[in-house]
């Protein structure tokens, strides 16, 4: 699973990261992997986010900026607050733009459960 976001200010990211953490632990035997890539954040903010949310097994990474080739490679629109991509066997099985925990959490949970099967 991949998440792309400009920064950690979006309040939807904390519940998203907690769902990722829970799913990652639950489906560890299925080799579920997850990362979130930020393109406008500072390393110290990611360290604080990791400490505050106690995230293990979900990689937090920094890209070089909104023009990073990875964003172009995944066709990420940097105007969005977030882009969430779920894969199974290297195929996209779910895609969320501007993830909203209230309306998208159940759909994302089902997508992650499908990956875990």
Helix content: 25-40%
What is the CA–CA distance across the termini?
15 Å
- CATH topology: the name is Glutaredoxin
Number of strands: 5
Order of the strands making up the biggest sheet: 3-2-1-4-5
CATH architecture: 3-Layer(aba) Sandwich
Which word captures the global form? globular
Which band does the percent of strand residues land in?
A: 15-25%
Sheet/helix structural class: alpha/beta
Number of helices: 4
Order of helices and strands: EHEHEHEEH
Rounded mean pLDDT is 91
Largest sheet: 5 strands, mixed
Supply the CATH superfamily name.
Glutaredoxin
What's the gyration radius in Å? Answer: 13 Å
Number of domains: 1
User: Residue ranges: pLDDT <50 for 5 or more in a row?
Assistant: none
Mind explaining what this structure looks like?
The chain is an alpha/beta fold and 117 residues long. It has a single domain (2-116), classed as Glutaredoxin, CATH 3.40.30.10. Helices cover 39% and strands 23% of the residues. The protein has helices spanning 13-26, 43-53, 69-73, 101-116; strands at residues 2-5, 34-38, 58-62, 83-88, 91-97. A five-stranded mixed sheet has the order 3-2-1-4-5. Helix 1 (13-26) runs parallel beside helix 4 (101-116). The longest helix is centred in the C-terminal third of the chain and has 16 residues, at 101-116. It is globular and about 35 Å long.
């Amino acid at each position: 699973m991949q998440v792309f976001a400009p920064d950690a200010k979006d309040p939807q990211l904390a519940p998203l990261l907690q769902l990722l953490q829970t799913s990652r632990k639950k489906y560890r035997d299925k080799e579920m992997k997850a990362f979130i890539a930020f393109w406008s954040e500072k390393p110290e903010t990611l360290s604080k986010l990791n400490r505050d949310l106690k995230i293990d097994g979900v990689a937090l990474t920094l890209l070089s900026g909104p023009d990073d080739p990875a964003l172009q490679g995944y066709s990420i629109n940097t105007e969005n607050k977030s882009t969430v991509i779920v894969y199974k066997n290297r195929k996209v099985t779910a895609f969320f733009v501007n993830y909203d925990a209230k309306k998208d959490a159940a759909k994302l949970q089902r997508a992650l459960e499908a990956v875990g099967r």
